[in-house]
Amino acid sequence: MVTPHRLRVPAPPAPPLTGHLPLADAPGVPDRIDVTNRWLTRGGRPWFPVSGEFHYSRYPNGQWEEELLKMKAGGVTAVASYIIWIHHEEVEGRVRFDGDRDLRRFAGLCARHGLDFVPRIGPWSHAEVRNGGLPDWLLARACTPRTDDSAYLEPVRVWFTAVAEQLRGLDRAHGGPIVAIQIENELYDRPGHLRTLKRLAQEAGLSAPLWTSTAWGGVRLPGEELLPLYGGYPEAFWTEADGGWPDTCRKHFFFTHERDDEGIGADLRPTTVRGADPAPTDRFPWATCELGGGMAVAYHRRPRVEAADVGALGLTKIGCGSVWQGYYMFHGGTNPPGELTTLQESHATGYPNDLPVLSYDFQAPLGEYGQVRPSYHELRLQHLLLAEFGHRIAPMESVLPERPPAGQHDRDTLRWAVRTDGTSGFLFVTNHQPHEPLPDHPDTTFTVVFPEAPSLTLPSAPVTAPSGAYFCWPLRLDVAGLRLEWATAQPVCTVEADGRTVLVLASTDGIAPELALDADTVTSVVVPPGNGDFTPVNGRVLVTGLRPGTDALVEVDAADGSRVGLLVLDAATARTLYRGVAWGADRLVLCGDGVVFDGDEVRLHSPAAEPSFAVLPAPGSAPVVEGERVREEADGVFTRYTVEAGALTSAAAHVSLVRPAGRAPEPVTGVQGRASMPADKYVAMVAAEYRVDVPEDLLRAPAGVLLRLHWTGDLARAYVGDLLVADQFYSGRVWDIGLDRLSAEELRASGLRLRVLPLAAEAPVHVPGQVGDAWRAAGVRHAEWVVTRAWAARTG
Fold it and tell me: How does strand 287-292 pair with strand 227-232?
């Protein structure tokens, strides 16, 4: 039986409010940033930013530039970063902005590569850092932090002044990258203090067109001085070990117009200090700063976040009405070694969660050592959509169907929504959520009733919306003179190639692609030989039977004389698609590894022995990789280049057991009765100990070399001599250790030691997906060296 899903688009809303907020860009800037009550604008055009969190002080400064280029290639347009006070002034009066703390250099690199910068200046950051970022010496004073207590505000004033000095000349008035500044973090009941902090920051010399505040948990804001930003995570480490999947995470896989999330940071917020009512949605656009790019692991609760969880959440938020996609974290990192203490959030500092001493990987799209993860490819696919069509999507209203899900535990009603301007739009479907698979939805069609345009019912024949799928389909999308009435494939981006504007679409596994063209905008259609057919039906030209791939290019001559190509990639290939300026032109690059665009060079970060990439349009001369032979061949409408290097990519690592594990320590609980990380003495006395022999050739060239460990147990730590260099809590994930973070000289002298602690059977610790007790035993099951090289491709 056909299951029709119906949605009625209301009459167009009133024009947006403008000039109603006390937020203003620098005078005379050519691309002025403004805020309406529904979307942001830049240079007078709707603007849909994508921000990603990357903590410079948690990453080696020599690698910042390449990692920023990876973020940019992943579709991030603005880099957000906490300015973590304790990282810069652990010792009172000795403020450090050197090395990995060089804020000015980091912001300058963002500017150099066309990335906006969003400093989150605190003074309290949280960020799973010691004291939320407040230095120990400050907390030792007779003052009340996070209030207008003058004894607290005076050192804050000095700190803001130091930050402002580092960022001097990098504001918009001087052509700098700073588009927004966040004040504080997760402060719910002190709007007056937020106002004071903004004033102190401005007096110190900080300026930006947008001043923001986190707004979850019913935060009370100081009037309209701060733009509220929201968040949403697919999982949480801050809930109870035995609490199951939180409803506050479940809600983010439904289309809704509710912006708030009462779950984020709830472990640090007694309900008695929540703000009263959330920020008014009729005054501010729906902007986010903390969509979960992953999730940290705490000792008591160690969630796993999969790429589809991140991708489905992000796409759902666009369908809900988001006009700013902001991710936390987009890039993982490592806590710096403290001079006086360790710098992680812990029970020892009164926090309800014990975090690893060093690792802040966050399961992010780009990992602690710059690893390119599947979630990076999932999000890039969406960011390509926003880069191409975000200016159209941002002003579009989100409309929900006539029959929405009955509640957060309704797994049977299809979840969908439309962003629309009243005559055209984008249809969003989410049929994925973590932990609890959603069913197939067979015999599905959609009807969208527009107020001032004919209704659309699509596709022409019912389809099955597969379990686990999430996608966006275009409705009346104009492409260079052609009107695409609908497509059962997701629009990605366009590129000029061979005299045509080529629109790339990504198919969804399990749904046959169908393209419906407005016949009045078409003069001729050519499908690939033996791949697809087209039929005139009721004023449309239906293209069906396509096998998605690099050769599935439908060529259309439009009625206005323009030439258009519609290229439908299969789902897997679409997730390897990059778009960037390469060798003097906008090009598409297909590569399953990491790609960065850097002037006249395209660099591939690949663990493959013979890395390969395909390009459209092909450059005039074949790319050259210095010292290597490059093979060229056709790949559908792309040209593929393969570097015939035969490079070392992986090898078994020799790990020898030095000492077996003793009995697991008895569980201990700390703040809020949650399990505490075992004391260091147990790691020294009880843990299994291993020695890793590092091959000399890898020591001589450690860049891009990871030791990848498959292990079981409770927690693991790595040492060079007596120095702790890496750590992880067991969650079923592999443990990567970057060889280039370690001293080759000390490794030769002391070697690399691993200590792995077993987990007591009765420990109140949540580790998902584990069966039986074998995983609790301490052991390294397998280890390998993984070598990722950066291949630089240039043209003559």
Answer: parallel
**379 with 311: CB under 8 angstroms?**
yes
**Cα–Cα distance for residue pair 533/554, rounded to 1 Å:** 10
Half-sphere exposure of 578 (CA within 13 A, CB side): 26
Read off the tokens for 340: 């006086």
The letter for the amino acid at 423 is T
C-beta of residue 544 within 8 angstroms of C-beta of residue 514? yes
Query: 427 to each of 156, 353, 400, 445, how far by Cα in Å?
Result: 47, 40, 10, 12
Is residue 205 helix, strand or coil? coil
Q: Is the separation of the CB atoms in 293 and 75 below 8 Å?
A: no
- Can you give the three-state secondary structure of 302-338, one letter per residue? CCCCCHHHHHHHHHHHHHHCCCEEEEECCECEECCCC
Residues 146 and 193: their CA atoms lie apart, in Å, by: 7
Count the neighbouring beta carbons within 10 Å of the beta carbon of residue 410: 11
| pLDDT tens, residue by residue, 410-421 | 999 999 999 999
Assign residue 122 a region (left: φ > 0; alpha: ψ between -120 and 50; beta: otherwise). left
- Counts for the chain of helices (H) and strands (E), in that order: 13, 47
Residue 722 confidence (pLDDT): 95
Report strand pairing: 654-659 vs 688-693.
Answer: antiparallel
The dihedrals phi and psi of 66, each to the nearest 5 degrees, come to: -65, -35
**Positive or negative torsion for Cα 477, 78, 118, 256:** positive
Coil, strand, or helix at residue 256? Answer: coil
Cα separation, 318 vs 715, in Å, equals: 38
Q: Which residues contact 207 (CB under 8 A, 6 or more apart)?
A: 26, 171, 172, 173, 178
Contact 186, 269 (CB under 8 A): yes
User: Which residues make Cβ contacts (< 8 Å) with residue 199, sequence separation at least 6?
Assistant: none
Mean pLDDT, residues 509-515: 98
**To 10 degrees, what angle do helices 150-166 and 103-112 make?**
50
3-state secondary structure 121-180: CCCCCCCCEHHHHCCHHHHCCCCCCCCCCHHHHHHHHHHHHHHHHHCCCCCHHHCCCECE
pTM (global) more than 0.85: yes
pLDDT class of 649 with cuts at 50, 70, 90: confident
Question: How high is the pLDDT of residue 281?
Answer: 85
List the one residue out of 107, 140, 145 whose CA is nearest residue 126: 145
Q: What is d(CA 748, CA 752) in angstroms, rounded to the nearest whole number?
A: 9
- Three-state SS annotation for 67-112: HHHHHHHCCCCEEEEECCHHHHCCCCCCCCCCHHHCHHHHHHHHHH
Alpha-carbon span 498 to 657, nearest angstrom? 60
Question: What mean pLDDT is predicted for residues 640-663?
Answer: 93
Question: How many Å apart are CA 59 and CA 377, to the nearest integer?
Answer: 22
Residue 194 has pLDDT above 80, yes or no: yes
- Among residues 190, 183, 88, the alpha carbon closest in space to that of 138 is found at 88
- 3-state SS of 689-756 is EEEEECCHHHHHCCCCEEEEEEEECCEEEEEECCEEEEEEECCCCCEEEEHHHCCHHHHHHHCEEEEE
Q: How confident is the model at residue 342 (pLDDT cuts 50, 70, 90)?
A: very high
User: Residue 270: what pLDDT?
Assistant: 61
Query: In terms of C-beta density within 10 A (0-12 exposed, 13-18 middle, 19 or more buried), how is residue 10 classed?
Result: exposed
Task: Please answer whether residues 615 and 588 qualify as being in contact, where contact means their C-beta atoms are separated by less than 8 angstroms.
Answer: yes
